[in-house]
## 1
Amino acid sequence: MVVRNPNTASTKCDRLLKNRKLANYLGTVFDTLNLVRPGDYVNVDHSDMHGLTALVGAIQTRNGRAIPCFAETTYALHIPAHEDASPRWKKLRTAMLFARTQQSFTGHTIDALQEFHDRLGFWPKLVFDRGFGNESLVTHLAAEGATFYIRMKAGRYIEFDGERTALQQLGRSDNTIQLFGLTLRVIRTPKSRRHPEPWYILTNDMGSSRTKVARIYYHRFEIEETFKDMKHIWELKRTRLNKPLSLKLLLWFVALGIALLYTVTRPTRRTVTNEGKTHAKKQVSWLRQAYEQLQQGYALLAWGEG
């Protein structure tokens, strides 16, 4: 909606970013695009945004950028406590400490994932980075029947052949281990020039090959590229919001925009070429390209071809 009075426009924006019912409904709007299916892999990660934290799930496209399909927000886990902090940081820290008395950071993550499942009616396969391999989350997902892939630290202790062993001490690259009272699997990826240190991937996927599990985790990095695009193309890096709900609404609007761009453009894998040579590492962001095409379309509508 466009209004002439800037004060009225500001009031409408403020009301919009406080609309909890709308924030919860936008996930249902996203689902009408039918982009998430039971066999899909959804990367899950946190991203800090100036005192607030976004928990985002994004569908792997295997094309460099993941498509955000759920968003939840809370106060950041670590907020400066020094006395000369700005009033905004002090206010955020007070709110964060109160929020943590109501619910732990891990509890917030578990509830958000469960709401994602309840919204869809099924569990897609979930891919996590380090930091998500705690007992509460792993046992919850296992009990729910969700398939997960979580990168673990090399020094993490597990039980193997009845003995307490660090992951880095495992002799084989594919092992069945015990952790949190569960029988799980750990895949160790080979070293390479791009990845001098191996990945240790904890999963309850007992059927996929070691190569496939490594490939599934490899495409987890798509969500990091998506976060970069969200912060720079959509300029979320400039936000200085004080309420998690406001950030959640903004994230959903951006996620819906990305999903619509993907649906309309259906990008194929592209690489940058130089003098006829293809450089696989320099993959062009289909998201940036689609956004630029959208902006060009706006310009044509506004100014015409001339």
## 2
Amino acid sequence: MKKLTLLTVFAMILSLGNLNAQKVKFGHINGNEVYRKMSEVKKADTIYSAYVAQLENQIKSMQEEYNKKVADYQANETTLSALMKETKLEEIKSLGERIQKFQVSAQEDAIKKQNEIYEPIRKKFNEALKNIAVKNGYRFIMDRSVLLYYDDADDVTAIVEKELGIK
């Protein structure tokens, strides 16, 4: 993935061959560092963690109920009639299926919640990058994670942090 991104960047650079190299201004940023410093991310992390914990607690509760039913069945199996055995086994099977469905649904809900919480933050971050690029004449601002070498003179991390109100 990084190789593909790097190749794409180099292809974009090569496509600018007809431009004067002095007119093209590149910048770089430590995007992960800036993103982690945003107060909105810290709040979102707390909200998301609480949401996931709530789902995990529900799954744990269901699993405990399932385990109790299995243990109860195993403890009383010899004294149960054939009809009661069949009924209890069907209850256990049904509960197991509900747990599986709930786990899938909870995973989907967690992803939706994550997107709902973090998407506005990503948009704000990207808008700040765009504003910095326009204000300072940068044609490209790349994340350091895809760069093999960079000159600190072109580091826009502090400017973006200022734009986002990060101290």
